[in-house]
Design goal:
Layout: H1 2-20, H2 24-34, H3 38-56, H4 58-67, H5 70-101
Helix pairs in contact: 1-5, 2-5, 3-4
Length: 103
């Protein structure tokens, strides 16, 4: 269970970064096309991206291991959608607080 919570926190932070950089649509497109053959693509990615994975350290290996399983892709897509919803709610709430409290 602890591993699951740590993974969820990790996924949420990546999703937040993608949404803040406006790369969420690209990530969703990539993950949707990547999904049906995730095991094959992750093995090819390991082969061709190994020099970059070394630069990323343990997190690069963790990401490749994570993307091998199709159910993890769905979890990641869900986290991206949650981050999108939080981002779209922020301006409205901020505007409401500014109007109410004059900040």
């Amino acid at each position: 269970m602890e591993e699951n919570n740590a993974t969820d926190v990790w996924l949420s932070s990546i999703a937040e970064k993608l949404v803040n950089l406006n790369l969420d649509s690209v990530a969703v497109f990539f993950l949707e096309t990547f999904g049906p053959m995730s095991n094959v693509w992750s093995q090819l990615g390991r082969l061709h991206l190994q020099p970059l994975l070394i630069l990323l350290g343990p997190s690069g290996e963790r990401l490749m291991s994570f993307l091998e399983k199709p159910e993890n892709l769905e979890r990641f897509l869900k986290k991206i959608e949650e981050a999108r919803e939080r981002k779209t709610r922020r301006p409205w709430m901020g505007g409401l607080f500014r109007r109410l409290f004059g900040s």
